[in-house]
Design a protein that fits this description.
This protein has 100 residues and is an all-alpha fold. It has 2 domains: 51 residues; 40 residues, no CATH class. Helix 2 runs antiparallel to helix 3. The longest helix has 47 residues. The N and C termini lie far apart (110 Å).
């Protein structure tokens, strides 16, 4: 034994290495999850803004003061024909305009 050297391994070294690797993987997983959540939140916010813009564009312009009912009905019909108003929206606006 004089010529040979004994290598003594500490029992805690593999456990410490496993703990470090596991901790690193956990931290990376949490960071990835936070990034994914931020992207999902941003996508939802963009979708909300787009929906609000689409709704604002779908609203018919307010009728001019003093214009006659025929011109307003024609304008509503044009909006319906161009696809800005649905049939239900057209009918509701027409009923409101005609007062019935």
């Amino acid at each position: 034994m004089l010529g040979r050297r004994m290598v003594v391994r500490r029992a805690g070294a593999p456990l410490l290495r496993a703990a470090v690797v596991g901790g690193t993987a956990y931290a990376a997983g949490r960071a990835g999850a936070r990034h994914s959540q931020r992207e999902a939140d941003q996508d939802a916010a963009i979708a909300d803004v787009q929906a609000q813009q689409a709704y604002a564009q779908a609203q018919p312009p307010p009728p001019a003061v003093g214009s006659d009912i025929t011109a307003q009905l024609k304008q509503l019909a044009d909006l319906k024909a161009s696809g800005v108003l649905s049939y239900e929206e057209f009918e509701a606006a027409k009923r409101k305009l005609l007062g019935s």
